[in-house]
Amino acid sequence: MSTGGDTDTPADSPADTGDDLFADTPQAYSEPSVDLSHFSFDGSGGPPGEISEARVAPRFAGDTSELPAPVCYALQELIAAAHVSSKSRNWRAIEANEAIIRSRLSELNLLLEINTEYRYAFTRQVTDTDPRQRNILRASTLTLAASVLALYLRQKFLTSIDESATVERTEMIDHMLTYKPSRDTDEAGFVRRIEAAINVLENRKIIRAVAGTDRYLIHGVIVSLLTPEQVEAYTAAYRELSGAGGDLAELDDRDASATDASATDVPTTDAPTANVSTPLAADEETP
């Protein structure tokens, strides 16, 4: 970038080819690649990234929203998706407009949870006593087997040296086989239960299969799936279950009926289980 007098620019320089994002050319100022009309950076409208009072162009016929399009799309993903990671195209809008997004979500009885360390966000349903309350999200209880697996994957994620923690399918199966009671001679049936637990976590967007491999990506949201108190309770219960030769399969049979139950339902076993929230389907109604 020029700091004073004129300098010669080679014919094949980035300034001529248009590849230099920092080129000191008129086009660099007159033709921005990103619409910044709804942001204020001169100090007159608040801190950088704050929504200004400027009217934004409607996104569709009949659009009366006063929010910029990026904020609208961020809200939509937060409500429709199980969680939003920093890899989402809406992540920057969530960070820059956290206050207004929190406010809009609270109007729907939703709380915004943001983890700045692992860079993900998700919403929690809040239930009040007003009969007019309508739930946007549905809480579902993981089976005991899925909860055991989630605890293992949480520990694996926290101890991973890579930003993207992965796990082999065989690792998950081998770990879960340690809970198979010695009197159970049907190993194939037990493995099927393990595979069902893996599918539960994948359907809940807690893990994601890596295409073309036998590996799964562990999403950072697993850290918030279990509270510290739950982790302590789960660890003690599962240690006792494993040490006493308890039958995880039998407990999972009794717990299966709670898989799609509300988070407010009492679990069918004394063993702890985890709850996750998913958006309600369009044809579902809350009581």
- What structural category characterises the helix and strand content? alpha+beta
Instruction: Note the overall shape.
Output: elongated
- Please provide the ordered H/E string of secondary-structure elements: HHHEHHEEEHEHHEEHHHE
Q: What is the strand arrangement across the widest sheet? A: 1-3-2
Total of DSSP H or I helical runs spanning 4+ residues: 11
Sequence stretches where pLDDT stays below 50 over 5 or more residues: 9-49, 249-273, 281-287
How much helix, percentage-wise, in residues?
A: 25-40%
Multimerization state? single chain
Mean pLDDT over the full residue set: 73
From the alpha carbons, calculate the radius of gyration and give it in angstroms: 25 Å
Number of strands: 8
Major sheet size, sense and barrel closure: 3 strands, antiparallel
End-to-end distance, in Å? Answer: 63 Å
How much of the sequence lies in strands comes to 5-15%
Describe this structure in words.
With 287 residues, the chain is an alpha+beta fold. It has helices at residues 14-17, 26-30, 69-80, 91-96, 98-106, 144-158, 169-177, 187-203, 222-225, 228-243, 248-255; strands at 84-85, 110-115, 120-125, 137-141, 166-168, 207-209, 215-218, 275-279. It contains eleven helices and eight strands.
